[in-house]
Prior knowledge:
two-stranded antiparallel sheet, 42% helix, alpha+beta, binds zinc ion, 9 helices
Amino acid sequence: MSRVxxxxxxxxxxxxxxxxxxxxxxxxxxxxxxxxxxRLTSDNKFKCRKVGCPKCRYSYISREQKNAxxxxxxxxxxDMALLTINLGIVAETDAIWDRWVADxxxxxxxxxxxxxxxxxxxxxxxxxxLDVFPFAYEEVTSLGVKQKEYIASVGLxxxxxxxxxxxxxxxxxxHHPRLDWQAVRDGLANHFSAPHQVHVEPLYRDELxxxxxxxxxxxxxxxxxxxxxxxxxxxxxxxxxxDYFYSCECFSDSYKSIRMQINGKILPVALGDLLRExx
Length: 279
Ligand SMILES: [Zn+2]
């Protein structure tokens, strides 16, 4: 898991790129244009709250980080992991949304099916977020070995080869008490069975739980229009940015649509945890 922080300068730069590329007259653009400007009626600054707005994305991330830290107050970091599942590749950003709805259902079905066979799965919780990785046709040969094996298995959709492909995936913070992370990986890989489709990474053992949780949430929600090709970071073109984030605006109901929550059955707090808290 790489660390993801975006400086204020980067937020302004990405905001400006979106403003340059989006067609005039869109309500989405007009709202984003005002983001960060002082309101006429109060001392507060206006926030557009658009999924495609780099400034508002970071307010959203910090809210999600606080919620997750509270939610997992009694959980052990040893029972938590970052889960990534590759969900598919499409040639049009608009195609992501119906499929993402179907993928969320498939995920819920998978967890239910696993819980019917092994009860520890009943206690698994996760908060998952949609993320994308666009690449140009001529970049396929430069992708990593695992990505190429995944692409070879699922195939590339029909395309004009001029516009990018969109590999889309979910990143989730998972709490898996009574299961080890390898069991989570192997169970989900039975349902998402393409090569390298499921990846599970335990939290860092040498860091505070709160910092770990914050890192996973920031990574899962990053607003960083950058793809890693041959180990080098390559900025998405402004066209790609406008295309993806405009499709988010058209098809999603704000941040709710890019997020999925699965609530496991809560385990009673162990006596040891309660005693530790009293100190
Ligand atoms: Zn905004």
